[in-house]
Amino acid sequence: MLSRTAASLYWMGRYVERAEFTARLVEATVRLDALSSSPAGEAAWASALMVIDSDTEFAATGEKLTPRNVARFLTLSTTHSGSVVSCLDKARDNAKAVRTALTREAWATINRAWLLFHGRTSPGDTQATLNLVNEAQAETRGFEGAIGRMMRNPSSWFIRLGATMERADNTARLLDVKYHILLPEGENVGGTVDRDQWTTILQTVSAVNAYRWLYRDGLKPWFVTELLILRRELPRSLAASAEEVVQHLNALGKQTGFQGEADRLARLRHARLGLTKVSTIVGDGLHEYLENFIDENAALSKAIARQFRFD
Amino acid sequence: MKPKAFDEIWGKSSGDVPRAAFASLARWMGNTPLHELERRQQSAEATFRQLGITFAVYGDDDAAERIIPFDIVPRVFTASEWSRLSAGLVQRVEAINAFLTDIYSDRKIIAEGLLPPDIVLTNPQFRPEIVGSAPPHNIWSHISGIDLVRTGPDDFWVLEDNARTPSGVSYMLENREAMLRLCPELFRQYKVRPVDSYGDMLLETLRSVAPIGAGSDPVCVILTPGRFNSAYYEHSFLADSLGIELVEAADLEVDDDFVWMRTISGRVRVDVIYRRVDDDYIDPLVFKPDSMLGVPGLIAAYRAGHVAIVNAPGTGIADDKAIYSYMPEIVKFYADAEPLLPIVETWRCREPQALKYVLDRLPELVVKLVDGSGGYGMLVGPTASKAEIEIFRAALIAEPHRYIAQPTLALSTVPTLTDNGISPRHVDFRPFVLTGTNGVKIVPGGLTRVALKEGSLVVNSSQGGGTKDSFVLADDGEAG
């Protein structure tokens, strides 16, 4: 496989995942906003911007922080590089560059998701916004399905590797931002607003039912933290992502005949997560832990590019 | 007074009795409700859009990605029509390859006085850089697209030869896919020969011309200018059908006169490059120095005999419009027989008498730039405004050598779905001829382009033409 192809597949995987995450975030924020009394609703949108690290970028537009403005900025803004449409644009561009490495179905799902957003200027009212992000998620799910049916060759592993690396990053950012909003000082943990906030986190990573299954308890920040970082049963947890990265690199190693720095870093991270306890994470500072995880993930991404000669 | 065009289904009749072979097709058109045909056509186009079977028109912003309109009514050739056509195509492509071998070596044809030397030697398509280095097996134009028009049951004319990088084969294949899905009943009525062997045929052709020393499993790649090129979909489609890498210039490097591609597991040697990049851009060391699409050193590797380039550099001299008018003599010289496919009568405006003749009759002629393509730089006299004609008159007087002129042919028509029901529209046809060491092969089909505007003769997709599926029957239909 060409090194350029590997790069495009990897980044295509990352951008589709990012588009989906942002769509989920918008969906969860719409719900949270609907449940909260103003101005808590605005706070919900402000925190959504922080999750994907776009708060400064939004401020620079000079637009007023209203639900509709932020929703548009997160879904349809072509000037905002983190919007769903921008991510789909980049995913589709990469997909076009490697059409030959994709099945028709995989290409068509990306193309359909892109056509859904392309040329739209307003997400419309709340219901229309929900419909839009739901449709986007349906297409990205279709993409994931199409990838699952692709030949088990390096192409499919690079796409999955990109998706998994992105997933780890997204979950870490979500938890980092939300946790700090959710536990302001003096706030009584366990109030009703609080429940809604916590549910938002779980909704964004499709973990509402998983939480009930695993904990059969009311919502507790402690358990949410454990679920999102350490529980491998949850596909979007850091531990599950770290494990999948090792598996994808393994599969690539078997098919391309070499392993390297990226494999070593991935295995190390995976082993460390297996030995970590939630009490240690919270005791040493969740924010520091997550920041460190995000930095390590970025370093691993660079190592992957070096190993397959696309840096 | 324009003669009534020959319609490929209805013949010259007034449209109540179809040609013998096509009675069931005529019945199908009559019996299928219009809205049903429209629905199927829309479904085909929706599929094309979803798959991204698009075509970029340069300099047209909102049309950055357009689909080529598809027409649901097929164009049909009977087995005997096809075999006569094939013989003519094989003869012509063999002559083109012999001509190229000669022009880049002894130039016997010039020595015999059949071709004025300046028309070759000062032609921008002639590449002195490769004189004396013949491609492997003396095959230059491995993939030729010969554009034909028709004026009667057995009257086919070559409109132009495409011996460089003919495109359109992906539409031939995609149109067939669409027809199989949407109109299966037609395939039950007619024995249509399949076209899906094209990918295998092409790969076989590529592998057959690998340089000596490539081993038993030569590495073939397709070289594309990249995803912004108008035919990028086709490039990726072909790479996919053949199961070979689609590379851009940046993926290749030349080292010690061998070509390598950069892969995730190191360098891999490349033996055959099916390039969809024009000569001018292929190697900045030899041709355009500012080309970003080329591979420095590629021509040196080619001259060293270490890589096959498909089609070979320098083939442009064979399909140049200035050479076109000499094609009957060229075919006769190398085939040692009369050409089976005639060309359209052509006046070379470089010759003073011809120029005078043309200037006197501009409103009835088609005038073409010898170095134009895609329907650009063309005057269609009968449909042009007075002002357009005068612009061309001035251009002709200023630079006569840049133009040729031809009579306006009564191109054949094929029934086509329009806003006002099914009515005749003019068509042309591009079959694809493959030449490898295993001989000359033609896939039974091709690209039919149709001018969607009533009366229009311009079928180019860049000018809003559409395409149809082209059936080649295994027998003579109901006439056989």
UniProtKB/TrEMBL annotation, chain A:
Organism: Sphingomonas paeninsulae
Pfam families: Alpha-E
Segments forming domain DUF403: 1-308
Protein name per its UniProtKB record: Alpha-E domain-containing protein
PANTHER family documented for this protein: BLR5612 PROTEIN (PTHR34595), SLL1039 PROTEIN (PTHR34595:SF7)
Biological classification of the source: Bacteria, Pseudomonadati, Pseudomonadota, Alphaproteobacteria, Sphingomonadales
From TrEMBL, chain B:
Residue span, Circularly permuted ATP-grasp type domain: 74-451
Pfam family membership, one: CP_ATPgrasp_2
Annotated InterPro entries: ATP-dep_Glu-Cys_Ligase-2, CP_ATPgrasp_2, UCP005522
Domain of life (superkingdom): Bacteria
Name by which UniProt lists this protein: Circularly permuted type 2 ATP-grasp protein
Organism: Sphingomonas paeninsulae
